[in-house]
Amino acid sequence: MTAPLLRIEDVATANSPALSLSLHGGELIGLAGPSGIGKSQLFKAVADLLPHRGHLWLDGKAQQDIAPAHWRQQIGYLPAQVHWWGNQVAEHFNQQPPLGILGLPDSIWHQPLLQLSTGEKQRLALLRLLQNQPRVLLLDEPTASLDAVNVERVERHVQDYLQQHQAAALWISHDPQQLQRLCQHIITLRVAA
Ligand SMILES: Nc1ncnc2c1ncn2[C@@H]1O[C@H](COP(=O)(O)OP(=O)(O)OP(=O)(O)O)[C@@H](O)[C@H]1O
């Protein structure tokens, strides 16, 4: 087997249990566990947004040997609550993404963000993340606010992206069926005994 794209060894924050895993190109691993256990905290740690213990490697290179800006471009983090800074959708993109692929109308491009639904903003945030062409996706409940048709669109789009770019993803979900349908492996975090 080839070297892992991302290796996580004993990474933990002050509010999470430790996580160790290897992610290979094209692979999708699910992250499950009760609310408040620390799943999002672990994503922030891996994305270099939160102090943590443990070690990380990208393509066999240790995190401390990679410039932080490069790390954050390669490790694409989609938070459960996305931060938007401008007024209009178009301000947040370098170029217009394929909106229709996630069921979004072209008219949304010039709409104020305040007018958009949670599910619309969630899908736009995914398109924005993928424009940076990250090698690893950290997806924190990316379909939490979506109907079944759009859940399927998002799932298919992420799977296509992973195949086309030989990228890999970690996917947090509270839906065990979704994780079973999508993931090669599922890691369930538990409270330490
Ligand atoms: N900024 C913070 N300061 C202190 N505690 C925090 C902070 N952010 C999160 N926590 C705590 O860390 C713990 C883990 O939070 P986290 O958001 O990672 O949980 P989660 O497993 O993702 O939960 P959920 O499934 O509900 O999204 C929680 O107890 C939370 O209250």
From TrEMBL:
<protein>
    <recommendedName>
        <fullName>ABC transporter domain-containing protein</fullName>
    </recommendedName>
</protein>
<dbReference type="InterPro" id="IPR027417">
    <property type="entry name" value="P-loop_NTPase"/>
</dbReference>
<dbReference type="InterPro" id="IPR003439">
    <property type="entry name" value="ABC_transporter-like_ATP-bd"/>
</dbReference>
<dbReference type="InterPro" id="IPR003593">
    <property type="entry name" value="AAA+_ATPase"/>
</dbReference>
<keyword id="KW-0547">Nucleotide-binding</keyword>
<dbReference type="Pfam" id="PF00005">
    <property type="entry name" value="ABC_tran"/>
</dbReference>
<feature type="domain" description="ABC transporter">
    <location>
        <begin position="6"/>
        <end position="193"/>
    </location>
</feature>
<keyword id="KW-0067">ATP-binding</keyword>
